[in-house]
TrEMBL record:
Transmembrane segment boundaries: 16-42
Name this protein carries in UniProt: Uncharacterized conserved protein, DUF305 family
Keyword Zinc part of the UniProt annotation: no
Domain called DUF305: residue spans: 54-215
Keyword annotations: Membrane, Transmembrane, Transmembrane helix
Ranges in coiled-coil conformation: none
Origin organism lineage: Bacteria, Bacillati, Actinomycetota, Actinomycetes, Pseudonocardiales
Species annotation: Actinokineospora alba
Domain of life (superkingdom): Bacteria
Length: 223
């Protein structure tokens, strides 16, 4: 014969425990479903496409920055001028950090590090950046980029010649990247790309003044 203990203190405690557990489970399931729905909506609304300004800027500016890092790394390791070494180190560290940010965004967005298309800057409106060559499919070389011959020459120089040539190449490189940064700051859909492009605009504009001043101190002019 089954013992009937309904209404006892132990029975009441078990009921409270079961009901509390059920309520907690419902809340957890509800929260999880809500989070998944929210993430899905946010992702659909904010993930840039392959043709977007955000993705194009992140892909092309990475390439632009990588060359600056290459030149800065060489100058830092081979100059004997402490002011050039310090500037090269700052440029290298700043742009490496920005490359890391852009690489992370592309990974989150499910986009490749580099565009599969052959040209650069196709994500900018035709003619708006002042480089209309092959505008619909982009340009073959981004403004400010050094040629392979110029990079090779930099690596042959020493002393003042190395310092001056590095400053000249970097000045041209910095100036060449401003159009892309300005366009992204005005047209990107995501706040992170707009914020970074604005930082690049301000940072490189300040460094351009420093580069011009350092060239003048060495009796040299921009390329």
């Amino acid at each position: 014969m089954t013992e009937h203990n309904e209404g006892t203190p132990e029975s009441t405690k078990r009921k409270i425990f079961v009901l509390s557990g059920a309520a907690l489970a419902v809340l957890l399931v509800g929260a999880a479903v809500g989070m998944l729905i929210t993430l899905s909506v946010v992702r659909q609304a904010s993930t840039p496409t392959a043709e977007s300004v955000d993705v194009g800027f992140a892909q092309d500016m990475q390439v632009h920055h990588l060359q600056a890092v290459t030149m800065a790394n060489w100058a830092r390791d081979h100059t004997t001028d402490l002011s050039v070494k310090s500037l090269a180190f700052d440029i290298e560290q700043t742009q490496l950090g920005q490359i890391g940010a852009m690489s992370g965004w592309l990974d989150i967005w499910g986009q490749p590090e580099q565009s599969p298309e052959p040209g650069y800057m196709a994500w900018m409106a035709a003619g708006s950046h002042g480089h209309t060559t092959e505008a619909s499919g982009g340009v073959r070389a981004m403004p400010g980029m050094a040629t392979s011959q110029e990079i090779a020459k930099l690596r042959t120089l020493t002393g003042r010649e190395l310092d001056v040539y590095f400053l000249q190449l970097m000045l041209r490189h910095h100036a060449g990247g401003l159009d892309m940064a300005r366009y992204a700051s005005e047209n990107a859909a995501t706040s992170q790309v707009r914020n970074l492009s604005e930082k690049i605009l301000k940072g490189q504009a300040n460094e351009i003044k420093v580069l011009e001043s350092m060239l003048a101190e060495r009796g040299a002019k921009p390329l």
